[in-house]
Amino acid sequence: MIFYGLQTISPQYFFILAFISTSLVSMAVGTAVGTASTIGLALISIAQTIGLSLLLAAGAIISGSYVGDRMSPVSSIAIITAHSSGANLMDMIYHMLKTAILPYLLTALGFLFLGLKNFSSTTNIANLESLSKMRMNIFRSLSGCCCLQS
């Protein structure tokens, strides 16, 4: 996942993509901690490899994870809250969604701005291309290993 992330994610859009992707995964899975410890680990590794701020990357990952968990119909918190209050789960999530859209969009714009600002001072495209070629050579050399042949 890290290899493909380095190939597809543009560094200036990393923070907003990390925020959106973790929120979508967390919404689908229903766990913020599980999302942060799976896709978040790969995203932090990508951010470190490209030379981006790890603090901003962690902020985008954790923010997205908890926003998605809040809006997930399979989240344990949402299910317990709906059950204990006697509310319909989907109605409750719909009403929470109405209050979450504006902060979500503002946070996404903030991460977009931070990514565009952070990119110009920290990332060198030539280093990314050489790193990508080096990793490709490593994968090609490993494919010749007897344990990886099909």
**Element-by-element helix/strand order:** HHHHHHH
Tell me the quaternary state.
single chain
- Total strand count, please? 0
* Integer average pLDDT: 83
User: How many angstroms separate the termini?
Assistant: 21 Å
pLDDT under 50 segments (min length 5)?
A: none
Helix-strand category: mainly alpha
Number of domains: 1
Indicate the proportion of strand residues: under 5%
User: Number of helical segments?
Assistant: 7
Biggest sheet statistics: none
Morphology call: elongated
Helix content: over 70%
Radius of gyration: 19 Å
Subcellular location: Cell membrane
Organism: Halanaerobium congolense
Protein name: Na+/H+ antiporter family protein
Keywords: Antiport, Cell membrane, Membrane, Transmembrane, Transmembrane helix, Transport
Please give a structural write-up.
Belongs to the NhaC Na(+)/H(+) (TC 2.A.35) antiporter family. It is a multi-pass membrane protein. Pfam families: Na_H_antiporter. This protein has 150 residues and is an all-alpha fold. It has one domain. It contains 7 helices and no strands. Helix 1 crosses helix 3. The two termini are 21 Å apart. The model has no long low-confidence stretch (mean pLDDT 83).
What is this entry, summarized?
This protein is an all-alpha fold and about 150 residues long. It contains seven helices and no strands. The mean pLDDT is about 85.
